[in-house]
Amino acid sequence: MFSDRPAPAAVPGPGAPSLVVVAHGSRDPRALRTVTALLDRVRALRPGLDVRLGHIELNEPLLTDTLATLEADAPDGAAVLVPLLLSRGYHVKQDLPAAASVSRRVTLVAAPLGPHPLLTEALHDRLAEAGWPVDALAADPAARRTAGVVLAAAGSRDPQSAEDTRRTAALLGERLGGVPVLPAYASAASPTVPEALRALAARGRHRTAIASYFTAPGYFATRSTAHAPWIAAAPLGAHPAMARLLLHRYDEALVKPYAAHAQAAHAEAVHAFAAHEPNEQRRTYGPPVPDTLAAASSLPFTSASASTSAHHLTSA
Fold it and tell me: Cis bond leading into 115, ω under 30°?
């Protein structure tokens, strides 16, 4: 069980870098309310830490404005950009390092949130809240043979984003006791949610649920769960595990920033990928674009810390 008691990793002093949570942004008003609640939970876990919000697009404050405010408040301070994104993709590989590089402050970039055991726990809890029969399936092997889950994600043209989502699906399947979990996408990648549901049905998995691999409510999450033949879980939202994971990525970046160990290794692939992206999707902080172009709103990096158990990170 997750606790809201202060996270033990660090007690921030007056010179501790600010934590800037970078959300994608959405026209759905529930998204901003959800992210705000999540940041309140982060502040409660780490009292005294300066926690701020910046959006890539669609919502205020934009990341550029947040960084400008930080520079005005404390010109000699430092900041860590922690993406509220679930897999590797264009925003994590390009937009955030670019924003950090032009800041006059010392600005580090953390890894995206997933894959990670804490995300698995949050997904598991959201399914249970929606009605997933955890105890009944554990006690009934026959019922498990007809159950399945579709992990619905935003989607991205970046193959590493799909790789990260597949890893999360595998972790969730293990957490559910071996129930198959198929990743599916709302945009830019395949299979779609209906295709994944049909694939499970073809394997005799007719009691299928949809796990929402989205950080907050929005267009893609709503469209994905509309296909649910049985139950559909809520997005990850302000789950306590999400707050702890944001702080874990912040602490991790203070030791080894994501951009330092990932950007160079992926640079060639990123440039090849960007050459095929629509111009609108390559805008760093331009005018708002339709939510349907927000496919890269989930982005994760498999760091060495992904093997750390959720219990270790939440029980101390």
Answer: yes
Give SS3 for 78: strand
Cα dihedral 10, 12, 18, 21 sign: positive
In this prediction, residues 69-86 reach a mean pLDDT of: 92
Q: What are 4's two structure tokens? A: 């809201």
**Residue 278, CB-side half-sphere exposure with 13 Å CA sphere:** 11
Check: CB of residue 54 under 8 Å from CB of residue 61: yes
d(CA 312, CA 33): 30
Measuring CA to CA, how many Å separate 96 from each of 23, 32, 64, 188? 11, 20, 10, 21
Report pLDDT digits (tens) over 255-285: 988 865 444 433 433 343 344 343 333 322 2
pLDDT at residue 188 greater than cutoff 50? yes
**Is the C-alpha dihedral spanning 5, 121, 93, 60 positive or negative?**
negative
Q: Give the whole-angstrom CA distance, residue 94 versus residue 267.
A: 9
Rounded CA-CA distance 259/253 in Å is 9
pLDDT digits (tens, 9 = 90+) for 4-34: 444 444 445 557 999 999 999 899 999 999 9
Residue linked to tokens 């691999």: 213
Give the H or E element holding residue 170. helix 159-175
The CA angle 183-178-194, to the nearest 5 degrees, is 30
Cβ proximity of 42 and 280 under 8 Å: no
What's the rounded Cα separation, in Å, for the pair 81 and 3? 24
Q: Does residue 61 have a cis bond before it (omega within 30 degrees)? A: yes
